[in-house]
Design goal:
flat; SigB/SigF/SigG family RNA polymerase sigma factor; transcription; single chain; transcription regulation; mainly alpha; RNA_pol_sigma70_r2; Butyryl-CoA Dehydrogenase, subunit A, domain 3; two-stranded antiparallel ribbon; 12 helices; 59% helix
Amino acid sequence: MEPETTSKVCAVPAPTVLPHIPAPQRVAPADARELSKLFLQRLETVEEGTPEYQYVRNTLIEMNLSLVRYVARRFSSRRESMEDVLQVGTIGLIKAIDRYDPSRDVEFTTLAVPYIQGEIKRFFRDTTWSVRVPRRLQELRIDLARAREELEGQGSHEPSVAELADHLDMPEDEVSEGLVACNGYDSDSIDRPIQAGGGGKQQTGLVADLIGTEDPALALAEDIQALKPHLAKLDDRERTLLQLRFGAEMTQAEIGEELGLSQMHVSRLLTRACTTLRKGLLAEG
């Protein structure tokens, strides 16, 4: 049989016939990785927009949704809906599929995970900086700002709710609701000094001092707990290598000298151990 012609050179020839997968989302993560290689190679050879192209691409997306769930778990403590996070993460997965090049001989997960994580982080960055309020309150905020400016120009340094309501000819409770909504738009600088009580109003610190931050070691602690059962499955030599490399931060050459191994042998053993751990973590997705 003559090989198929293709406009791109792939590291491995694309299969002539792909296996039929009736339920791609139910494929185990380990099997999905192997099948994805075949489908990604095939995607390079079929014409975009054809029924076969859609089938291959959609199957790749469904088979790798476990990657999205795996990455999304890191953001489970956020207040946003996990369904929204998964949808955004799926966009990252699709981008990874569309931009993956089999000829570079790089594992698909190596490209996909950063894409998924990047889309989710971008989602949080773009949607959590302010409070969303109804349209009528957005418009009322503008009216209140104008009313306050006009009243202050007339000598009222801090207009009361009653004065604003009278000026705008609207109920006081509606003005109060609008003032509360303004807090969702007016950001306060975290570098603003905090003034102590009393006539002197001494500076006692900055607003930033009162804001808690996420412990940077929290994600590391979660990763270590997730790795523990997989580390237990490694043999003593593999665990020793990992401890020397990542615990003692020794170079491969130093490890080889310590254990009486060549640097190349140390490199192969470390790669094998890390691959085993990575597969174990991804299989949990």
